[in-house]
Write a structure and sequence with these properties.
6-stranded mixed beta sheet, alpha/beta, binds iron/sulfur cluster, 279 residues, 6 strands, 9 helices
């Protein structure tokens, strides 16, 4: 495992300061408002650069409430992580650049992705999720504890609808819409290889439709309702070939796993299906 560099306590990690898997450098442009998110995302997509796109995502400051929250959490920390440096920045998309399975979540957890800098890494949801991805052949390791731990997605990529940890796990509609261009641009850069999209929860399911529409997909009306195991087959736009399967899956949140609303077997069914279709 790569050592996490030590920086001043409470500060978000400076870009390019040596944090494992940090995609940004001190020169990465920072979006300070919604219009700049749109412009910087479109520019990176037009340049065809996932690396530049994820770098720009990881330094974004366009949502004042979320910037304040993520940095406050990074400064205060929780008791069990008091000695650790928190990432405290947006958590960018991560995984295979030629992914056949795209996993779409809600937003990073305050003490998970916001601490480790990698999506679904270092929290209970990720423990359950990565164990299932490993069993289904989509992850190299059964655990994901920290950036630089050797974990790797196999033919899969993870993205969040909103890249900053929100208070009470609830981004506002404005924050969702402000962050949407990052998602649309990332999808545009991987859409040619993607065959399956797994939406973790209803928020992700809703966020998928504008993402698909922006990539040229015909979105059904009325929009199909979210449900665990729900499936929608979408014809890919002309020139991209084939179909994309949209799969619904209950979010592996602590509440859902503790109450048994979603179980490891239920996750394996969804990711097993995604893996088979993608193959
Ligand atoms: S939620 Fe998205 S748009 Fe808002 S600050 Fe974070 S990365 Fe930027």
């Amino acid at each position: 495992m790569t050592a996490v560099p030590s920086v001043a306590p409470g500060l978000p990690v400076p870009p390019g300061s040596g944090w494992p898997e940090d995609p940004a450098t001190p020169a990465t442009p920072v979006a300070a408002e919604a219009a700049q998110v749109r412009a910087l995302a479109a520019e990176a997509a037009a340049a065809g650069s996932l690396a530049e796109l994820t770098a720009r995502q990881s330094v974004c400051r366009a949502c004042p409430r979320l910037v304040e929250w993520r940095e406050q959490v990074a400064a205060v920390k929780r008791a069990s992580s008091r000695t650790q440096q928190y990432w405290g920045r947006p958590v960018p998309g991560w995984g295979d650049d030629d992914a056949r399975v795209l996993i779409l979540g809600l937003a990073p957890a305050a003490h998970g992705g916001n601490r480790t800098g990698r999506i679904f890494t270092g929290d209970r949801s990720g423990d359950v999720l990565f164990a299932s991805l490993y069993r289904c052949g989509l992850a190299a390791l059964p655990t994901s504890t920290a950036a630089g731990d050797g974990q790797r997605l196999i033919g899969a990529r993870m993205v969040a609808a909103v890249r900053c940890a929100p208070p009470a796990n609830k981004p506002s509609v404005t924050e969702r819409d402000t962050c949407a261009p990052w998602l649309a641009a990332e999808f545009a850069l991987v859409v040619r290889s993607v065959r399956v999209i797994v939406c973790l929860g209803g928020f992700a399911w809703q966020a998928a439709w504008p993402m698909l529409r922006s990539a040229g997909f015909a979105v059904p009306r009325p929009r199909p309702k979210f449900g665990h195991g729900g499936e929608v087959t979408l014809a890919a736009p002309a020139g991209m070939g084939g179909q994309v399967l949209l799969l619904g899956c209950y979010h592996p949140s602590q509440q859902n796993t503790f109450t048994g609303r979603v179980t490891p077997a239920m996750l394996d069914e969804v990711f097993g299906r995604a893996s088979r279709v993608a193959a």
